[in-house]
Structures are given as structure tokens and as C-alpha cells.
Amino acid sequence: MMELIVKVNGLNKAGEYFERIPGSGSKKAASLPLLHGYVKERDISKAESFMIKLSSSGLLVTPHPYNEMMKLYMALSQYEKVPLVIAEMKRNKLCRNVLSYNLWMGAFGEVFEVAKAEMVYKEMVSDENVEVGWSTLASLANVYIKAGFVDKALLVLKDAEMKLSTNGRLGYFFLITLYSSLKNKEGVLRLWEASKAVGGRIPCADYMCVISCLVKVGDLVAAEQVFAEWETNCFKYDIRVSNVLLGAYVRNGLMGKAESFHLHTVERGGCPNYKTWEILMEGWVKSQKMDKAIDAMKKGFSVLKVERCDWRPSHSILMAIAEHFEKHGNFEDANHYIKAVHGLGVATLPLYKLFLRMYLNAQRPAWDILKMMEKDRIEQDDETSALVALNS
Predict the structure, then answer these.
(1) Domain map (residue ranges) of the chain
(2) pLDDT at 392
(3) DSSP states of 282-294
């Protein structure tokens, strides 16, 4: 019930509803969804106040609310508060669960307190109420990776592998990601093959993960082989999978390969999304094929009309295309471009300044540009003020 109220009516109404709930049992059941809502919104003030209220009412009887607070502190980089939560759990004689230990360990890892993270792990091993599984070992390995202790990380990851089960894939891909961060190709490939023992169809997200990890460890050939395996078995062509490989080609300067691969995916029934066009834009700008980059930009903008997404092209790409318009004086395309960029909410002072110069040099009025700047609340510098004055 509380989850629905939070979703439909918002946190303020949910908080009011919570106050009207009679009986501690019902309040206890409703407290965690409400606290989770505060955590999701990163509202630390309300979350901490709510925890005080729950404590004074005797409603903190499980580790779950404490885990929610530790998640919030981790998300806000307030790592020093996590051990304080654990201390309060101990004072209240509450058992920690696996997530409690993992968050506690992770907080020390974020500030490179390896010895303290190891102390948490030892305490967990001696805790009869919990069982050390792959997630805890992965958390410890991550602490070692952040601190640069590669050998220790590899030993722990090997132990984590022994804890994996064929009942689910999550652990396999969590460990694959950690192996890729160590540039350990053998670990990535070994876990990928082992994951196939899990029953059921392998989802696109898992193919995307392993292709991305193989790209990260520098093995494009293996990434291509995994992609070919997905392509052979897929029911519906998901362009997000091919985008991972397309991006790798572009980042490695293989634009010829990227272009032919893009044509191949379209022929196979792939429907390019905004990310596809962004990747190609980036590659064509870098290779100075500006006509192709502008064409990709137009297609990307047209996709946005039917897709709901938060596309944010990089500032360098936006400026490179704007500079091309300035150089060639193409006002029709330039007008379409600045309006689209303004609509995305990513127009910047340097971008507007470029267009003011462009219009000034062509002796054209720039009222539309000035209106967009005002709407975007762009703070003008001296150069911009001078351009605005000359355009008036």
C-alpha cells in the first residue's frame, strides 16, 4: 500500500498517511517503503528525521532500515557515517545481514581503508547469523581493486567463483565486470563460458556486459565473436547490443569498420537509436567527415521526437558542428541546430557566442538567439555583452 501511495501521491502525502496509520504493526510494515522513498530521492534530512522517529517508537527491529541509511550515505559519498550506523545497530543488539556487511566493507573501500575492510570481513566470517557468499567476496575484491592490490583481488575473485550457483546469472556478470577492471581477459572469458550453465535464455543485457568487458580488456576479436553468437540466436535485433561494438570501433579509430558494421546492423533489421547516431557523429567529427556527422546529428534529433530519453551529446561534438556551420555560413541548418540543442537543454555560453558572431558577420538579426539565451539563463561575459550590443 505504502509503495503505491509514494508512487502515485508523492513522499509528502505518503508521510502524512504514515502518521495516520494506527497500530505499531502496520506502521512497521509501512516504514521501510517510505524510508526507501526518502533514500531514492536522496533526501537525507527527511531520512534521518524519520529514522529518529522510528527509533523512538521502537520500530527499528530489523537491519533493513539501517541498510537503507547506509545506501544513502554511500550514494552521497558520506562514507564516514556508515560505521556510525553499524555502531547503532550493535548498541541496539540488532543482527547484521549480508548487505549490512557488504555496505560497511564498501564504505571503507571507498576511502582506501583496506585493513578496516578486512576487519569487517573477518567479523562477518565469525558471525553465525550470516553466510559469506559471492557478493561479499566480490565486495572485498572491489576494495582490493580500488586500492591497487591486484594479487589479493584475484585470489578473492577465485574464491568468489567457487560460491557461484547455476540458479542465477547475476553473480557471474558481477565478477566478469570486476575481472575486466583488472584487465584480466582470461577471467572474463572463463566466467562467460561458465555462465552458460545457468538455465534459460541469455538476455541482451548480459551480452552487452560481456562485449563491453572484452572491449575494456582490449580483445575486439573476442568481442566480435560474442556479438556474432548473440546475432545468431537473437529473436529481435536489439540495437543496444550492436552499439557497444560500434562504439568500440569508433573509439579505436576504425571508422571504415564502424560504417560497414552500421550498414550490416541496419540490413539485419536493427533500428538505430539516438546513441547509434551519437557514436557515429563522434567518429565522423574526429575523422573530419562533417557532412556525415551533420546527417547523423539530424537523424539523432529526429529519433528524439519519438523516443523519450535524456540525450546529452558531448560539448566538444556540439561545438565542432557549430564551428562547421560558422565556417560555411549555412544559416538554415544552423538555425535548426541551435534550436534543437536549446531544446535539449545543453546549449552553453561558448555555443551561443559562436552563433552571435556568425549572425553578426552575416549582418543578420539574432533575436532568436538572444531569446534562447534568456530562457536558458545564460550568464554573459564581457565578450558576449559586446556581441549582444552589436547585434541590437
Answers:
(1) 236-310, 312-392
(2) 67
(3) HHHHHTT-HHHHH
